[in-house]
Design a protein that fits this description.
single chain, mainly alpha, 13 helices, globular
Amino acid sequence: MTTTAPVSDRPHRTPARPPVRAGRAGGQHRAGPLAHLVLGLAALASLFPLYWTLVAASTDGHAVVSSPPPMLPGGNLVENLTYVWHNAGGRGMGVALLNSTLVAGAVTVSTVTFSVLAGFAFAKLRFRGKKVMLGLVLSTLAVPAQLSVVPLFILTRHLGLGNHLGALILPVLVTAFGVFFMRQFLSQALPTELLEAARVDGANSLRVIWHVVLPVARPAMAVLGMLTFVQSWNDFLWPIIVMNGSTNPTVQVALAGLGTGWSTDWSVITAGALMGTLPLLVVFALFGRHIVGGITQGAVKG
């Protein structure tokens, strides 16, 4: 007669688990050769247009349009850049760069400021007609920018802003995209309890915005500021209309008059394009890491 051991006396066996690969902190693993290959090809594809601009700017007008085109830089880069610096826009490229910096800087500061305030109001404040007003703001995104050219041109003429840099700043002091972008960000990243705690501590609206809203919105402000600056710097349609014939143009308007004559000199045009692109590269090199770091910090806090 056999006896069975009690359940409590039986040896306990844990089921075998598949081996787990130890990763780095935060769940990040080391990239493999395929990832490095794909990223390297993507980087080369992104840098090729800039490299070709450098090649075309360093040759003469005949070599640019030759077949096959040159793939190595030539020796006319300094000569072409010097010509652009002294002749672009009538008064030189330096004046055009200064004007674009003033316009893009003013538009960026005003757009970010008003977008944060309006986005905070639509996201966290209660007032009558909020949904209707937000719908009206978003409806302007469906209107093509070309439809507003004629009314804006007539308005700027009546205000005496013809051929004036103020005509480039006034229509874009705030954008519907910026308001919607900040509203969506603050709706998720700004806790209502934090605002209520600030109100309980006796903070007024100005202190709440300065000490609570702005620190939370800093990552989104950096992204919106970069996008606005690049868009304002590269804007061409409205500046070429309102600044036509002006001796105080922006970069894009100044580049429109380069290389014209009996035959188009594409090497001079690409030299001007290269000179107009360098400030954007400098801005991104200086502030790109802060923008990415701010986005990562905001995502971790969220």
